[in-house]
Amino acid sequence: ISILVLNGPNLNMLGKREPGIYGAKTLAQIGDETTAFGESLGLSVDFRQSNHEGVLVDWIHEALGRHRGIIINPGAYTHTSVALQDAIRAVGLPTIEVHLSNVFAREAFRHHSYISPVAVGVICGFGPQGYTLALEALKPHVA
Ligand code: DQA
Which UniProt keywords apply (predicted)? Predict the structure, then answer.
């Protein structure tokens, strides 16, 4: 069972980017840990990042037939992207939204998500652990 894990803009800067908010780990480290945890659950993880909205839309479309579920940290596109909402709706794959930070403890513009209405659920505020929590939460939806 394969799961697509998508990361949006600026998440390639993790480790360097506002470590007080996002932590010291790089995205590569988080990817390795998420992939290893997935293996322990019998899930194969395809972990990716793009800074480009259209690339993320393409990857969501391509997930159909290749992956059984999606975990997505859309970064700032969370708060702006009707296109990502429509793409997730179009493929109909069970999707979990993840944020490293607790977006509700931050600026008001981070309180609204275009992704949440099409997600099974949302995990935010637990740092990199959010990705492994999301795999556990997604498993019954893809089994
Ligand atoms: C984020 C939260 C977003 O508001 C922000 O734009 C990000 C990262 C998070 O993981 O906490 O880029 O998705």
Answer: Amino-acid biosynthesis, Aromatic amino acid biosynthesis, Lyase
Residue nearest to atom 6 of ligand 1 (CA): 76
Q: What is the CATH number of the domain that holds 82?
A: 3.40.50.9100
Residues in the chain: 143
C-alpha of 119 from chain center: 11
Give the pocket of ligand 1 (CB within 6 Å): 10, 73, 75-76, 78, 99-101, 103, 110
Spatial neighbors of 94 by CB under 8 A, at least 6 apart, are 68, 69, 70, 120, 138, 141, 142
pLDDT tens digits for range 28-87: 999 999 999 999 999 999 999 999 999 999 999 999 999 999 999 999 999 999 999 999
The yes/no answer to whether this complex scores an ipTM above 0.90 is: yes
Count of the separate structural domains present in the chain: 1
pTM: 0.98
